[in-house]
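User: Could you walk me through two proteins back to back? I'd like the raw sequence and the structure tokens for each, with a short line separating them so I can tell where one ends and the next begins.

Assistant: Of course. Protein one, sequence then structure:
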Amino acid sequence: CLGTDWIFVIIIIYVIFNLISYLTSSPVAEYEVGQGTIATNHIYHGLILRDETVVYAGQSGYINYYLKNGAKASVNDVVYSIDTSGELSRQISDVASNGDTLDTETLNEVSSELDVFRNSYDSNTFSSVYTFKNELNAQLTQTLSMNALSSLNEDVKAAVENNTFYKKKSEKPGIIVYYTDGYESVTTDNFTSGQFNMADYKRNSLDDQEQVTANTPAYKRIDSEKWNILLPVSEDMAKQLKDNKDDFTLTVPYSLTKKDGSYYVNLSLKTAMIRYVNDRFIDVELVVSEKTGLKIPNSAITKKQFYTVPKEYFTQGVDSSVPGLMIENHAGDTGSVTLVQPTIYYETDDFYYIDDETVSAGDVVVKNNSSGTYTIGSDVDKLTGVYNINKGYAVFKQIDILAQNNKYTIVDTGTSYGVALYDHIALDGSKIKENQLVVK
């Protein structure tokens, strides 16, 4: 009866101890492990190269343009005119300033463009309003100029016969652009590293000039939809791209170039060039690799030190298949051993990783059916992992990191002794200890 009373007292003390520990413990923020992906991205400042031809004015005089910047021109489309006297050019400008000459088709087109811009407008990019305004103004001005040219047909005919007025047509199909910047003849073969420096970059606007001199640029024509983006990259990135090229599925084909000791990625494109006709430089994000697995916050990751014990010193218990260690008893019990079954947190080909829950540094392990011994603490190592709190107390779980950014880590799935999908882990691994009771 006395023995039963003592057992009851011990149970009460144990319950009270755990209750106090629970009530005095700080709440632990938790995180549910989910599936996720991290892409390894790199942003580079690229140089755009195109097949560009600068077209020079044949005569000196007053200039009027009839195609908007970025418009596609067919052969014999009138791009601009030169008036050596200036009188007809002034008349064209005066007539073009009258918006009443816009036809219904043009007005409907403008209305449609306004609707598209309004529906896609983002207040975070307010500068797009000015870009749209300038593009719309250019479109209307050159449409009105073309209308003016048609309405002054008799005056134009007379000026042409008098060799004072010249209508300049596109000799080849292409995209019309009204600026030069000195990069027109740069190719993927003759570029230099200095040409990537935006501080030295200058561009010359052409469509705001009223007069031109013979043999000076009138406009620029882009003769092909094919274009290239050159990206200066590090030697390590160049090696990564070279070694793993066949493993990537890229939306853009690329090649690697080495010039003057530096590496460059050459992206070859066949579409979307018209969207960037006004750009010489562009920021490009390369998605070099993408890893999928279990996604956990970096704050949950911690390290824990373990004893590493050779597998050859482990044995199976009589009534269990769980690996155990035969620990030599202290002096006084010479020749006797105690079988312990430590929790295994990780294993390699040769070692099991265990903690100090059932063994201590200095304990001597006896090898089964042998005189060999091993001293606990002879070998130690640290594992990277998180604390699993599914059962209300903390249990360390090793992780195998696949990818990482500044907030999250992707770890391998299905690893032995690791975390699993939907496990609950401590959000801050630095504040948790093994077997700590967890208040959620």
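----
Protein two, same layout:
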Amino acid sequence: AKALAAYADVYINDAFGTAHRAHASTYGVAELLPAYAGFLMEREIKYLTQLVENPARPYAAIIGGAKVSDKIKVLENLTEKVDILVVGGGMANTFILAQGKSVGKSLAEPDRVEDARRIMAAAQERGVTLILPTDVVIAKEVTQGAEYKTLSTEKLPASWHIVDVGPQSLAAMEAALADARTIFWNGPLGVFEMPAFGAGTRQMARFLADLADRGATVVVGGGDSVAAVTQQGLAPKMTHISTGGGASLELLEGRILPGIAIIP
């Protein structure tokens, strides 16, 4: 940090994506020089703090991605703050297990079923509308070109993999989100990196862009959800595209980000 600080008179941090790490370049230098937030950092703090402290309601969160274990804290925290919680992607499979259903060979975390049940119970207790997939796209293999079809989550074959959210589930998600005034989206709804299994994620991006067009505050954070928005040219329609997936989640968990805390 001293070596880096020797090159400058003033330090400006505009790297929100690393603000959750206390590195020499994000924390140490700020202890040694007059330190300020850059314009991007200012924008990130503005919109993400608004989600934590004073969101316009109804407030909804869409959380996808691979694992419940990666996002258990943010799910718990959001359950205390949101009016609507949509769970998709691989982590939804653990919630499907928690409902007593089979997920075949799908990515899931059986050791996190109790966590999922706890979040489901907390949502019910607090009156949060919790939307989980009721139909899914399944494939024989998680590979491009594999055979796939859509089925209800009530009757999934043992040897297939869940790879995307189904049309009925998407319709239920859109119906629940239609009147939301603030929406945070982190994580894809399926195996988005394979185009055949990214339809649900792409459709959600289009739907959220329409909501933003109609005046809702839509904040998107996380690599694949940002990619879904950017690839379809929808980024300019969103209220805010966060540059920090991990940093945005930690801030929404209620954690202090060292790279922000050190700036006066």
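Residues 39-53 form the longest helix (15 residues).

Let me know if you want the two compared in more detail.
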